[in-house]
Amino acid sequence: VQLQASGGGLVQPGGSLRLSCAAAASGRIFSSWVMAWFRQAPGKEREFVSAIRWGTGRSYYADSVKGRFTISRSTAENTLSLQMNSLKVEDTAVYYCAINRDGLEYDPRQYDHWGQGTLVTVSS
């Protein structure tokens, strides 16, 4: 499944952005799969941000974004979204969407389908 992430940009602290991740029309996302957002800041390792079970819609968040970010999905359109509110400078990173066919994992090495990443810069 090919994934295409979009929606990044420059925003001031306290602002909002909405990221989207579209699966290619030829790809099917199965209900047992998990889709997730990861991010990687310069000089740091890629880290888990949020995930959602495709079938049930149950969501999971890193403590650092809980209460500020909301993950959602559209099963009809095969799209994943991440609404990011109250953004902080430390949220600056390249954000990636990914799929894990085996269920929920917080380790990015367990994910086998990745989008190309979209840059989010939070700065005044």
What's this, in brief?
The protein is mainly beta and 124 residues long. It is 0% helix and 47% strand. The strands form two sheets. Strands 2, 4, 5, 6, 9, 10 and 11 form a seven-stranded mixed sheet that branches. Strands 1-3-8-7 form a four-stranded antiparallel sheet, with no helix packed on it.
Description:
The protein is an all-beta fold. The protein is about 0% helix and about 45% strand. Strands 2, 4, 5, 6, 9, 10 and 11 form a 7-stranded mixed beta sheet that branches. Strands 1-3-8-7 form a 4-stranded antiparallel beta sheet, with no helix packed on it. The chain is globular, with a radius of gyration of 13 Å. It starts with a strand and ends with a strand.
> Number of helical segments?
0
Percent range of helical residues: under 10%
Low-confidence stretches: none
Rg, Å, rounded:
13 Å
- Strand tally, please? 11
Helices and strands, in N-to-C order? EEEEEEEEEEE
Structural class call reads: mainly beta
What does the largest sheet look like?
7 strands, mixed
Terminal CA distance reads: 37 Å
Strand content: over 45%
Principal-axis shape equals globular
Q: What is the residue-averaged pLDDT?
A: 94
Core attributes:
7-stranded mixed beta sheet, 124 residues, 4-stranded antiparallel beta sheet, 0% helix, 47% strand, mainly beta
Question: What layout of secondary structure does this protein have?
Answer:
Layout: E1 3-6, E2 9-11, E3 17-23, E4 34-40, E5 47-53, E6 59-61, E7 69-74, E8 79-84, E9 93-100, E10 113-114, E11 118-122
